[in-house]
Design goal:
10 strands, Protocatechuate 4,5-dioxygenase, Chain B, 284 residues, alpha/beta
């Protein structure tokens, strides 16, 4: 069967792409952020996963406010980036994985998740920044990517319990896939942050660190939060924690934390990096 060997949480803020494009990684502002990534890169280069399942949210490139699916996933062989208006250079295409994608799509729809299935899909910084963080210099073409997009921009949005159950369903789908491949799951996005309004710049470090702890040892506790709880505790954009929660849902077996870093503020955001090793349950 296919094997989920691990998972990663990472920020995806567009300023990261600009910093990398301009060689700013070792400047005083960025150094504490970028210095945390080599252990995760080393692990990925050692394990050489075949597929990345990447949870992210689209910021208006593919899905705008007039059409906003609750959940969407790509089943294409290739995904293209485009100009989003952030000044980020357009980057090379991302390699897709259509066979496992279709298997997951069929499996989770059978379980009651009404996914929007995308045979063509542009991907924005929510997906491309994490890939370039892990394989700098756009050296990600060798790994196949399955994008799973969660609405975190416009109400109504899925609640944490539902995103966790989506992750569970995807984990079961991977487990039932007969081809012997290794999969790593990315949960991307900011932790606490608010980009506008009266609380612009709000960051709750204690809440972020507690969430990182619970992602390892008690993920079900995070499903007790509502989206409004996340907004109250972590700011308006803290609903992006739903990508971390969905990622954790895919891990059906034993989880071991290998690496962690928390840094704030970075572009007015709390950034949590975590590497989790995963052992798939046997005989299920």
């Amino acid at each position: 069967m296919a094997n989920i060997i691990g998972a990663v949480t990472t920020s995806h803020i567009p300023a990261i792409a600009n910093a990398m494009a301009n060689g700013l990684e070792q400047t005083p502002y960025w150094k504490p952020f970028f210095d945390a990534y080599p252990p995760v890169r080393d692990w990925l280069n050692e394990k050489k996963p075949d597929v990345i399942i990447l949870f992210y949210n689209d910021h208006g490139l593919e899905f705008f406010i007039d059409k906003k699916p609750t959940f969407a996933m790509g089943v294409a062989d290739e995904y293209h980036n485009a100009d989003e208006g952030w000044g980020i250079p357009t980057i090379p295409p991302v390699t897709g994985e259509s066979e496992l994608s279709w298997h997951i799509a069929n499996s989770i729809v059978d379980e009651g998740f009404d996914m929007t299935i995308c045979q063509e899909m542009k991907v924005d910084h929510g997906l491309t920044v994490p890939l370039n963080l892990m394989w700098p210099g756009h050296q990600y073409g060798h790994v196949k990517v399955i994008p799973v997009c969660i609405n975190c921009e416009q109400y109504p949005m899925p609640q944490p319990w539902r995103t966790f159950e989506l992750g569970r369903a995807i984990g079961r789908a991977v487990q039932s896939y007969e081809e012997d491949i290794n999969v790593v799951v990315f949960g991307t996005g900011g932790m606490s942050h608010q980009l506008d309004g009266e609380r612009a710049g709000f960051i709750n470090r204690a809440f972020d660190i507690d969430c990182l702890d619970k992602l390892v040892s008690d993920p079900e506790a995070l499903t007790k939060y509502t989206n409004m709880d996340l907004v109250e505790q972590g700011g308006a954009q803290a609903v992006e924690l739903n990508m971390h929660i969905a990622m954790r849902g895919t891990l059906l077996g034993k989880v071991t934390e290998l690496h962690r870093n928390y840094h704030a503020p970075i572009s007015n955001t709390g950034s949590g990096l975590m590497l989790l090793e995963h052992e798939m349950p046997k005989g299920e």
